[in-house]
Specification:
single chain, 203 residues, alpha/beta, six-stranded mixed beta sheet, 7 helices, 16% strand
Amino acid sequence: FFSGCTLKCCFCQNYPISAEGLGKEISVEHLAEIFLSLQAQGAHNINLVTPGQWRPWITAALDLARAQGLHLPIVCNTGGYERVETLRLLEGKVQVYLPDMKYALGEPARQLSGAGDYPTAARAAIREMFRQVGPWEIREGLLVRGVLIRHLVLPGAALRFLAVPAVFLTVVFFGLTAALFAGDAFAAADFLGARFFTGLYFR
């Protein structure tokens, strides 16, 4: 996990990391050592969670680790709200993209994540991801290349205006060459008044 996030989701399950800056400072050299240590421990990939805002330092660490024998697939695990220009700087360094496609409509994106332009930005970002790595590829049961689009299913009435349009747009734009995963990883927290947003019902 990298501290910070491009979104401000009121339901974030990792709020201390994404919004409060929980974490510790490390050097590029130490990050490269972490990558190599994970490989030595038998990891199947290096999963970079919300890396966009730290891109220059992460890519430097990847270059350093590759020079020292890192050969694992690199996963870019993101909320989907990324600039195409930033993603282009990752070309050739990332083998698997794991983006969210949270919303197909601007208003719920604005209400719940503070990003009314999320649908447009995420579609453009995922197109760029797909351009870079192409259709998914599995070797020995493991995804080693491709795009795995994750859709977050929120509870209650939100399903009708979040899940169905987002899944539909995913199929329209990317067909069956990008894998799709639906999950329910959200926090039923009130720190940003999440329960008061129309369509979100927490028990």
